[in-house]
Amino acid sequence: MKSRLADGRLQAWVTAGYLGAMATVFLLFWGFEGYGNITTPKFWAFCILSGVYVAFMAALAAARVIFGLTKKPWGECLRHASPAQWAAIAYAGITWASAICSPYWPDTLWGISRYEGAATITLYVAVFLLVSVYGRPGRWLLWALAGAVTLFSALCLVQLSGFNPFGLYPQGYSYLDAGKAYAGAYLGTLGNVDLVAAFFSLVIPLLFYLLLRQKDLSRFLLLVPLGLSLWAAAWMGVSAGYLGIGAGCVLAFPIAGATEKKHRAAAGALLGGALVLGLALVFFWDAGGGMLHEAHQMLHGEFDGRFGSGRVHIWQEVLQKLPGHLLLGYGPDTMLRAGLTPFTRYDAALGGTVVGHIDVAHNEYLNVLFHQGLMALAAYLAMLATLFYRWMHTAKTNTTAAALGAGTLGYCVQALFGFSMCITAPFFWLTLALLESSCKRATDLVPPQNGKNLFLPPRLPRG
Questions:
Q1: What is the distance between the alpha carbons of residues 189 and 38, in angstroms, rounded to a whole number?
Q2: pTM over 0.85
Q3: Dmax over Cα atoms in the chain, in whole Å?
Q4: What is the C-alpha separation between 429 and 447, in angstroms, rounded?
Q5: Angle between helices 425-439 and 83-101 (to 10 degrees)
Q6: In sequence order, what are the beta bridge partners of 354?
Q7: Does the structure show a pLDDT above 60 at 318?
């Protein structure tokens, strides 16, 4: 027992169990109450799983002190903390300062509308720190995630076909009634299609680069979850999801796909040229409608509040409110009480005017700026920047890091039009943690030529 506690094996096993539970149980759990109340059970599932994990790891840290295995556990941790870990700690600390100084305290503790208060954000950071130290992206974890994604995507496809398994929609309704009989659209075990798009933006690039970079034949089994998730993402038609998946799979290629320096340079040049040509095409050609038309108009300086399903209106409202609380923001998850002008539009299918009260910025970076302020946003971006820097320098030789970084990039791009929520944000923070853990190694845990480095399980010394 003491030997396992001393060398970290016990902590690694506990972390492995937590990661497995999050990749399967948390992803597939929907609360048994349908989409009308999916957020609350998902939030409590996250709190229970993550809270028990953090408490157990704290107990193990206390046991190390009791058994005399360390005299300064916090000093040891902080002394070896990476820049990304320091930035995450700063982000949590500034979030608490924002919450306490907010005029809406103590509602900022848990949040007013989306459970994104200081306590939730602290739990995100806590699991990031613990998993980044003790987490190992093992092969078993990949297959657990692949199986769960297969089931999740299959459920989405069944729902997109008009069926209602498990009664997630109200009796007599289905996905085909979205925007007609009720506002919004919901899929899978995550609810809002924007959250489903965020999840796919993370997991599809991750699976794609594991399939691309691995050498063993078993990698072709990843075609099942990859194909089903791509099918579901294409069918549900969320623009932010298209951008996130495209960024994770295409923009990441010079870093995650090409392993030779000359190939990286060529891929980067081709990709840069394609982006310039694409922007030029959008600038000079008006598609007449849809996302490309709105992009064309904005490139010419015309910002209609209706663009982006009302996102431009939301961004304008949020930006107008920023000067009064720029440094520490209004407090986490308080936008609903900030007095922003609701977004309204007439919906012919519903036969009336839809009024959307603004409780999130629909741009995660702007959301952090509004809620927690400029200092918190700086810490958050510093964490991402340092992780991406390390990813760029390890992806060439580390397949695991390459895939995790591509998934992170996809999520970060869709976050320009999406939002953080306890339903999908845990997957992002855990991916960041595993990326941090993987980047500590110059290469994968075993040589890539033997085909066994596909999310290898922890190899720990025997006691």
A1: 8
A2: yes
A3: 71
A4: 28
A5: 150
A6: 345
A7: yes
Extract the tokens encoding 102: 């907010």
Q: What is the pLDDT of residue 243?
A: 92
Q: Which residue has the tokens 């996130």?
A: 244
Give me the percent of the chain exceeding a pLDDT of 90. Answer: 50
Answer whether the bond into residue 458 is a cis peptide, omega within 30°.
no
Q: Is the pLDDT of residue 322 over 60?
A: yes
How many separate helices (H) and strands (E) can be counted in the chain? 17, 4
Residue with tokens 């991402």: 384
Q: Can you tell me the mean pLDDT for 240-268? A: 79
Both tokens assigned to 35: 């989409």
Which among 370, 363, 382, 279 is positioned nearest to 328, based on CA atoms? 370
Please name which of 319, 368, 359 lies closest in space to residue 338, comparing C-alpha atoms.
359
| CB-based contact 203:424 (threshold 8 Å) | no
Average pLDDT over residues 160-168: 92
**Contact 252/205 with Cβ under 8 angstroms?**
yes
344 three-class SS: strand
Q: Which residue has the higher pLDDT, 242 or 272?
A: 242
pLDDT beyond 90 at 104: yes
One-letter amino acid identity for 12?
A
Phi, psi dihedrals of residue 88, rounded to the nearest 5°:
-65, -40
DSSP assignment string, 225-284: HHHHHHHHHHHHT-HHHHHHHHIIIIITIIIII--SHHHHHHHHHHHHHHHHHHHHHHHH
